[in-house]
Structure formats: C-alpha cells, structure tokens
C-alpha cells in the first residue's frame, strides 16, 4: 500500500499580528480577531517565493527520509502563487534537490487544494508502479488585496510529502474528491490580487464541498467520525474548520493536534498538509487520521490515513517539528508587507 | 376608500444563494395569487417594486420580465422610490384600481442583494441619497448616524434606547420563520457589538437581504376581509442637509395625516404597526412622527415595552427591517402582508389580540419619500 514515507515543512519566521494590519488601515481589530480567530500569520520575506519555500520543505523531507533524491520519479507542486505563469516551478525545485532527469513533473493550481490534489495523483502514480517514490508539495506565498479582510489570514508556508511503499509511516487507506463549478474566490490572469464573494465563501462553498467529500469518504470506507484519533480540515480561519468538524460529528479534541491556523494563518495550498504534518509529529502507531482540504472554485479532497509502527523511529530522528517552527518567530510591522508588494510588482 | 387585500405571499428573507430575483418574485407572486383564490387570468396588471437590480445585475424592464414569466399579458410596471419602492408600488396599484382602470392587480416587491460584494451594495444604496452626499463619502449608516446624534443631543436619547429597538425586533423575529434572523439578542450583545458608525453598532443596522413579498389587491369592496382604507405619499428633500430638521422625518407626519384622514381613523385607533427601522433611530423617530408618543420620547416609549408583543401597541411584529430583513424593494409590500396577517388573525405566535386597525410606514432614503397605509378588517 502507498503511504507517506517522510514529510517536511517550512514556515517563514516573520509573523505579523492583526493589530498591525488594522493599524495600517485604520480598522478596529477586536472584532476581526474574534471572528477570524487568527492571532498572527507567517510572512515570507521579499527574497522568498513558492519555489524557495518548496525547496526548504522538500529538503527537510528528503533529509529525514534518507532517500536519494534521484530515486524520486514524480513531483507535483500545488500553488496559487507559482512565480511563473509559464515555466514549471516543479522542475526548478527538482533540479535544486538533485532529482536528476527521470521523473514526471507537474505544476498544479486549484486554490488551496492544489497540494492535496497532487497527493491523490502521485499516490495512484506510485501505486501503479510508475514511480518508486513521489514528492507532493503544497506551497504558497499567498496574496491578498491590501486592506481586504483576507490580509488578516493569507500567509506563507510549504509542506512536502514523500510517498512510496517502503518504510511507510502513514498508510493512505483511501481518498476521494468532490468538485463543482462554484466561483467563491478567483484571480483573473491580468489581476494582481484575488477577489472573493464575501459570505458566499461559507455555506455554498467551503461547507458544501468539505461536507460533500467527507461524507462521501466516510460512507465509502464505512467509517464514523469516532473511529478517528485526529482530524484536519483546510483552515482559512479558525471558525470554519471548527464548524466543519462540528457539522460532521468530530470533536474539538480530535481537531486539536492539527489546528495550526491560529499562529500561522492560512498558507493556502500548504494549510491542511501542515496540519497533517503537525499530527504526524505526535501521532502514535495504529492511530487513524481524517483529512479534508478545500480549494475555491471549488473542490475538496478527503483522505483516511493509518499510522504505522515506523513512526516512532521517524519521530525520534526528526528535528524541527511544526510546533518548533511555529515557535521560531520574529514579529514585523506592515512595512515588510508593503515592501514585498512593491518589490514583487516592481513598483 | 376601500381596497381589498385578497391574497398575500412572502418568501423567506435572508441569504438565499439558490434563488435569483425572478425566482423570488415568482415564488411570492404565485403564493399571493393562490391565496387570493384567483388565477393568473384574473390579474390585470402587475406592479413591481425594486430598487437595485438594474444597477447591480444590469436587468431593467422588470415589470415585463416578471409579468410575462407569470404568463400575465396585461399591464406591467416597475416602480422605484429607493427603500419606499414597495409602499409606492402598493399606492400606485391602488390608484389604478380607484380609477377603475383595472379590477384586480398584483403588487410584488423583490430584491436580490447578496450576489455582489458588501461595498458594491453600500455604494449602490447611496443612489437613494444626493450627489453631494455621495461626493462627501457618506453611506447610509453615516446619514442615519447623523440623525441619531442630533436626536441624542436634542432629546437626551441614549444608546440603550436605540438598542431596545433591536432587542424588541429580534424577539418578534424569533417568532417569524420567514425572518432573516429568527432569533433573540440580548441588550448586552447589542450594546457591546462592533461600532460601525458612532453611535451605531452592528446591531443598530438592518441587514443586506434577499427576498420578495406580494399582494393581490382588488377594487371589489364588498364582503368581509382586510381592506386598505388609507394610502398616502409625502415627499421631502433627498439631501439630509437640506431638511428643516435632523431629528424627525417630516414626510412621515404629512403622509400619516393624509392616510389617517382617508381612513377616517385617528392614530390612537391603530392597534398594530409596521414601521421602517432601517436603523434603530428610524423607529424611534417613527413613533414620534406618527404620533404614537410625544416628540423626543420615542426612545423612552420603546424601552418601556409599550411596542413589544403583549404591550399596548405592538410595532414591527414581523421583526421589522432589523431582524426580519430588508430586501429593499420587498419591504414596503412585506409590511402590508404582515398587517394583513395580523388583521386576519393569522399571525400565529405573533398575533396581536383583536387587531382590527393597522398601519404601515415605508421610508425612502433618509426621508425623501414616505408612504403610509392604513388597513382595517
């Protein structure tokens, strides 16, 4: 069975608090913090992008796995901030990692679920013996329109998973996906910043698809929410995943280990994957994990994982956990946000 | 004058993602026609009330669109008077019946507001104000906040008086399954919620809602039933800064006087009323302008519980604009629906005992247009 062999996470060290963003735009911060539940978010510096973040995360995954990079036969990078509209991020990352030439590389875009879509595709690619090992990455330096409410949560981070069949730490028992043409959040090619449909991003978008994919997978696997030790959803803010868990019948306790949004914000394609990584940092053999990501436009990818006994040794030798990266921070003010935008758009 | 309300129809008010404007208008219309025991063929004219759809969806010609979708081939019109569009449509429908031009007409007010961003809606709603107000960067919370501040300065009205309107209307809405917010809120919640524009908090403002309301009106004045016996419109400046006073809506007084005279009743005869609480201060001023209480005492009057269900003169048993919702073009027609239900004795948990005479007050903008109707059973 194909599963996760290794994982790596990179969370940039800069953090900005909502109060700093509110100060820049003359807004009252108390209600914003209460409704979004995000205390601070991770901010990439002006010399970082989705490619550099991917490399950092993938490198950690490789070092922990002890797999030679040129054995990796497939790589996907899911992002909504690929540096190029035409020129794959995945080949640049593969080159830097030393993957050689014998691999399939694909760049993916599907809002915040591009990373997990890659997981599903590469899992099947591995299972069908087209590659021995595959690298599924979710990476974003998320953009938001200055002064828009999205600024309080859109953040930056990357997560890389190495998939394969030997020394698996978490088996992928099953997965499914739920999609529809639902325009809740988009960015036209010529636009600098994304647009969103306000409250429409809730019930008809996030909840309809997460519930759709989750209920379908639970039915297919004949499992109940109580069968799981941990659950992780895409986290655009603190409120939505808590409510999704409640609606599906998961408890706040199950949600706890993977609940990273309060201190890093929403790193789009990396969100649920980093939540999964935080769970893997502390999971015990035999435990079952339920995961469902969400991507605007729209769709949701759901997964069931089962932890193997290999995890104990893996955890023992792995440094720099998600919790440690979250703690490793330096506070900034709005000036770095402004500088990033000015430099990116050569203003 | 006696115009019979033969049938009523009302959709749920709220964020209705799956419904288009046409869906909403048809749902309410068909319910009203069904309630009237008439068929499509008995309806001679359709009066459509809507403020924003031309701007936000580029769809004008709503009279023909809605009438033809109902397979009604007679006359059709779209009426606009900002948030008083609904009341105006009812008034004009009545005039056509009084003139003998038509025998039975359908009035439907509908609004679809949730398909565009909040900023686009806020900006579009400023079409109800003046160019000078738009250029000054004002929005409706700001305009009514100015009136609230003036009222608080002149009459010592306090924030707790404003909040009492919200609390009362939410209580009423908790008994109305069609309301946008069918739940109660506490005084603390209202007082402590986010400031949107001093002195208003989030709970002082009516929401952005989708919804439609419809009535079938008939010139046939025979037999028992609910009749509209007074219908009057009054006008004032669109620009707030050009009014004689910031602490009253003068057009309310004018329209109320004319409507009550037509109906042959006095304000003390009114047992239940629906008024235009787009912002809490508006309901306080309405109590004074309509004559339910002395000038300056609107806040005290409402805080005393006199206008709560069970009190002396219940106001906004539907939940008002604040808690039932405010799909702009639908509101004036919804008010007629609510009072009709009250006078028919069909208001369920919201029933005001033995209500035989009711009143509706529908305001456009900050008071440039006011429409008052009196209904009797």
Itemize the secondary structure elements and their pairings.
The complex is a heterodimer of chains A (347) and B (377).
Chain A: E1 3-10, E2 14-16, H1 18-25, H2 29-36, E3 41-43, H3 50-65, E4 72-78, H4 89-97, E5 104-108, H5 114-127, E6 133-141, E7 156-164, E8 170-179, E9 185-186, E10 195-196, H6 202-221, E11 230-233, H7 239-248, H8 252-256, H9 261-264, H10 271-282, E12 288-295, E13 299-307, H11 310-317, H12 322-327, E14 330-331, H13 334-344
Parallel strand pairs in A: 2-14, 4-5, 4-6, 11-12
Antiparallel strand pairs in A: 1-7, 1-8, 2-3, 6-7, 8-13, 9-10, 12-13
Helix pairs in contact in A: 1-2, 3-4, 6-7
Chain B: E1 3-10, H1 21-35, E2 45-49, H2 53-57, H3 62-69, E3 75-79, H4 85-98, E4 104-111, H5 118-125, H6 131-135, H7 140-155, H8 159-173, H9 187-192, E5 195-197, E6 200-201, E7 211-218, E8 227-235, H10 250-263, E9 272-274, H11 280-290, H12 298-303, H13 320-324, H14 328-344, E10 357-364, E11 369-376
Parallel strand pairs in B: 2-3, 2-4, 9-10
Antiparallel strand pairs in B: 1-7, 1-8, 4-7, 5-6, 8-11, 10-11
Helix pairs in contact in B: 4-14, 8-11
């Amino acid at each position: 069975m194909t599963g996760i062999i290794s994982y790596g996470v990179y969370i940039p060290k800069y953090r900005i608090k909502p109060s700093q963003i509110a100060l820049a735009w003359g807004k009252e911060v108390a209600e914003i913090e209460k409704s979004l539940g995000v205390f601070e978010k991770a901010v990439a510096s002006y010399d970082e992008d989705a490619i550099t973040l991917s490399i950092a995360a993938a490198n950690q995954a490789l070092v922990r796995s002890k797999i030679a990079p040129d054995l990796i036969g497939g790589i996907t990078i899911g992002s909504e901030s690929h540096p190029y509209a035409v020129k794959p991020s995945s080949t640049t990352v593969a080159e830097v990692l030393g993957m050689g030439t014998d691999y399939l590389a694909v760049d993916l875009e599907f809002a915040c679920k591009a990373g997990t879509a890659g997981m599903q595709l590469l899992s099947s690619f591995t299972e069908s013996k087209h590659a021995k090992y595959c690298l599924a990455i979710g990476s974003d330096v998320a953009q938001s329109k200055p002064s828009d409410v999205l600024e309080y949560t859109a953040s930056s981070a990357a997560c890389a998973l190495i998939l394969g069949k030997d020394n698996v730490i978490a088996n992928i028992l099953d997965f499914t996906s739920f999609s529809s043409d639902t325009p809740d959040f988009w960015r036209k090619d010529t636009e600098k910043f994304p647009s969103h449909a306000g409250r429409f991003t809730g019930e008809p978008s996030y909840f309809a698809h997460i519930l759709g994919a989750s209920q379908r997978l639970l039915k297919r696997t004949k499992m109940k929410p109580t069968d799981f030790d941990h659950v992780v959803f895409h986290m655009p803010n603190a409120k939505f995943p808590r409510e999704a868990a409640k609606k599906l019948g998961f408890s706040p306790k199950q949600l706890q280990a993977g609940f990273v949004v309060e201190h890093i914000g929403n790193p789009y394609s990396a969100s649920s994957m980093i939540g999964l990584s935080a769970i893997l940092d502390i999971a015990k053999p035999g435990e079952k994990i339920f995961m469902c990501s969400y991507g605007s436009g729209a769709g949701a990818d759901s997964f069931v994982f089962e932890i193997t006994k290999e995890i104990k040794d893996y955890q023992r030798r792995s440094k720099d956990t998600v919790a440690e990266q979250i703690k490793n921070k330096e506070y900034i003010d709005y000036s770095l946000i402004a500088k990033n935008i000015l430099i990116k758009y050569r203003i | 004058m006696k115009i019979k309300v033969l049938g009523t129809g009302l959709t749920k008010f709220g964020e209705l993602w799956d419904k288009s404007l046409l869906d909403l208008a048809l749902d309410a219309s068909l319910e009203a026609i069904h309630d009237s025991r008439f068929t499509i063929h008995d309806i001679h004219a359709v009066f459509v009330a809507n403020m924003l759809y031309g701007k936000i969806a580029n769809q004008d010609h709503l009279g023909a669109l809605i009438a033809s979708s109902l397979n009604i081939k007679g006359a059709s019109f779209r009426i606009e008077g900002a948030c008083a569009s609904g009341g105006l449509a009812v008034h004009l429908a009545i005039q056509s019946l009084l003139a003998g031009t038509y025998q039975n007409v359908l009035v439907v007010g509908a609004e679809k507001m949730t398909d565009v961003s909040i900023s686009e809606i806020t900006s579009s709603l400023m079409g109800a104000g003046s160019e000078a107000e738009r250029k000054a960067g004002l929005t409706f919370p700001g305009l009514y906040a100015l009136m609230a501040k003036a009222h608080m300065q002149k009459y010592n009205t306090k924030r707790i008086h404003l909040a009492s309107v919200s609390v009362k209307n939410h209580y009423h809405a908790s008994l109305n399954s069609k309301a946008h917010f069918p739940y109660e809120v506490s005084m603390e919640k209202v007082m402590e919620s986010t400031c949107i524009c001093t002195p208003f908090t989030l709970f002082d403002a009516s929401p952005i809602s989708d919804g439609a309301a419809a009535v079938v009106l008939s010139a046939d004045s025979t037999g028992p039933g609910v009749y509209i016996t007074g219908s009057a419109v009054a006008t004032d400046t669109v620009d707030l800064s050009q009014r004689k006073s910031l602490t009253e809506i003068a057009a309310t007084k004018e329209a109320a006087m004319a409507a009550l005279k037509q109906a042959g009743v006095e304000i003390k005869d009114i047992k239940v009323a629906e008024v235009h609480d787009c912002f809490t201060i508006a309901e306080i001023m309405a109590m004074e302008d309509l004559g339910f209480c002395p000038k300056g005492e609107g806040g005290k009057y409402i805080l005393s519980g006199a206008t709560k269900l069970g009190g002396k003169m219940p106001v906004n048993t539907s939940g008002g604009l604040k808690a039932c919702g405010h799909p702009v073009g639908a509101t004036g027609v919804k008010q007629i629906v609510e009072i009709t239900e009250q006078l028919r004795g069909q208001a369920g948990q919201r029933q005001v005992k033995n209500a035989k005479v009711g009143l509706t007050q529908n305001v456009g903008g900050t008071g440039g247009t006011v429409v008052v109707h009196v209904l009797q059973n």
